[in-house]
Amino acid sequence: MSAKNPDRVVIVGGGTAGWMTASYLKAAFGDRLSVTLVESGKIGTIGVGEATFSDIRHFFEFLDLKEEDWMPACNATYKLAVRFEDWRGPGHHFYHPFEQLRSAGGFPLTDWWLRNGPSERFDKDCFVMASLCDNGRSPRRLDGSLLDQDFAEGAGEPAGLTMSEHQGKTQFPYAYHFEAALLAEYLAGYSIDRGVRRIVDEVRHVRLDERGWIDHVVTKEHGQIHGDLFVDCTGFRGVLLNQALDVPFVSYQDTLPNDSAVALQVPLDTEKAGFRPCTTATAQKAGWIWTIPLIGRIGTGYVYAKDYCEPEEAERTLREFAGPRAAEVEANHIRMRIGRSEQSWKNNCVAVGLSSGFVEPLESTGIFLIHHAIEQLVKHFPAADWHPRLRERYNSAVANVMDGVREFLVVHYKGAARDDTRYWKDTKTRAMPDALAERIERWQVQLPDSENVFPYYHGLPPYSYMCVLLGTGGIPLRPSPALNISDETAARKEFAAIRDKAKFLVDTLPSQYEYLAELRA
Ligand code: FAD
Fold first, then answer.
1. What angle in degrees, to the nearest 10, is found between the helix axes of 462-472 and 109-116?
2. Is 281 near ligand 1, meaning CB less than 6 Å away?
3. For ligand 1, is residue 22 a contact (CB within 6 Å)?
4. 361 lines ligand 1 (CB under 6 A)
5. Could you say which protein family the record assigns here (predicted)?
6. pLDDT of residue 269
7. Fewest CB within 10 A of the end CB: N or C in the chain?
8. How confident is the model at residue 167 (pLDDT cuts 50, 70, 90)?
9. Nearest atom within ligand 1 for CA of residue 236
């Protein structure tokens, strides 16, 4: 390893993680970095129709890409919330929206709702997004403006903040659904235009130097490829980090048992059928089914635990759920590696994407984790001395974000009132990550806030926990006792304001279909 600045980056893997990394590094460092990406033409990528977090907008902004540039190319639609169906019991649903929770009289509105909410639906009473989802509205008006002044589009925000720096300052009102494979292709074009070298070939060997650092990779047809920093984006295979550098994988399976998925891409006439601007997660006997609306099709899949359900049964359940439109569609069975690599950065190799880690897609965190990792890589990019503290900081940021997301997902299962099958019964007695049991006990007395949720940045604000606990309904909660002797006038006003605003927005916003048709025209 020469004592020069590491300015040659070799990325192995051309899925969403590979091309997001390549494009972001180019946008960050321009020609001061040479970037080569090697991707196999034979080993496929994961691309099931993905949903995202609202923070993804910072990624596109960083690349200076506008919605009209990339959305049509990726069959993208808007996502205002996740809609959970049947988690409490058959026929029940609730939304986890992209919308900050309001407060009244110094208490979160959810406390007031628990004490004396206007209706049975906390999501409709406390957030406007639930009504917009029910009514298929677009978050933008036909002139392109955002739905409401309250949701300031970056107004007053300092430019160039990373998503962790943004958290808590604003809550952007929507995220996207898109085809990850199309996004990867779109970003490949962006990256190649900016000088990234693309090699379509398979990495057969990874050669280490005497210190155990990667010296070069050997491809089937293009010989050796040398670099300074190697980014492992090879998906669940972890060809560089796990296989060549022997970094162990820490499984989350004891707390999150879903390890399999079967996916279908169901054709849909979007204009005729219309579609909700949200991801839907419908609880099933041994897991849950996602429904992700895209332009021209629905991405759907059953995430399940193999200990509770055979793949054939999962496919049968999914086909029944999707109906006759899916009859001719081929099913894609996927085995998921749930957990994270012990370290995501070892020596001169950083894993980004599924090779670094993955939790099941219940809250659409896969691409968020990629985005977070890339931001951290830029922030901790090494110099000639490869200072170990930078790697340590990177590794703890990545481990924390994944552990935090894991904990948030476990709350969904612990909290679900549903207990009609062995799978759902076991969710109540399964092991929990350290400290979660204690946190749940606290939330039963004081609803989640910034001081009593997972303490490190993991992308989920306290109100998200509140939505899941209030929605899934299996953990008894109570409002702050102080409300018994507080004046509720301000809370009543706030509930009324939300109801009026929701009605106004439903009446005046175009449907999501109308807006996207205009954008694509
Ligand atoms: P992959 O897509 O697997 O790409 C791996 C790349 O490595 C490919 O290009 C392959 O050719 C290449 N490769 C492998 N070995 C070699 C080799 N030896 N030589 C050269 N190249 C090689 N995320 C979300 O944000 N929202 C969602 O709703 C969501 N849903 C998901 C549902 C399921 C069932 C699964 C499994 C994942 C989901 N994800 C979701 C995660 C998301 O799809 C992935 O994080 C994302 O696509 C990135 O994948 P990747 O690039 O890490 O890996």
1. 20
2. no
3. no
4. yes
5. Belongs to the flavin-dependent halogenase family. Bacterial tryptophan halogenase subfamily.
6. 84
7. C
8. low
9. 3
C-alpha 507 – ligand 1 centre gap (Å): 40
Do residues 286 and 305 lie in contact, with contact meaning Cβ atoms separated by under 8 Å? Answer: yes
Given the CA of residue 263, which atom of ligand 1 is nearest to it? 34
Can you name the residues that pair with 298 across neighbouring β-strands? 266, 293
Dihedral (Cα; 332, 309, 353, 463), 10-degree rounding:
120
Amino acid at 417: A
Q: What residue has token string 């029910």?
A: 134
Cβ(286)–Cβ(308) below 8 Å = yes
Q: Predicted confidence band at 1 (pLDDT cuts at 50, 70, 90)?
A: very low
Give 44 Cα–ligand 1 centroid separation in angstroms: 9
Task: Summarize pLDDT for 121-155 with one digit per residue, the tens.
Answer: 999 999 999 999 999 999 999 999 998 756 555 55
Residue 274 confidence class, pLDDT cut points 50, 70, 90? confident
Closest residue by Cα to residue 153 from 165, 139, 142: 139
Distance (Å, whole) CA 491 – CA 104: 5
CA distance 358 to 352: 10
- Please say whether the beta carbons of 65 and 189 come within 8 A: no
Amino acid 271: pLDDT:
73
Task: Compute the average pLDDT of residues 224-232.
Answer: 98
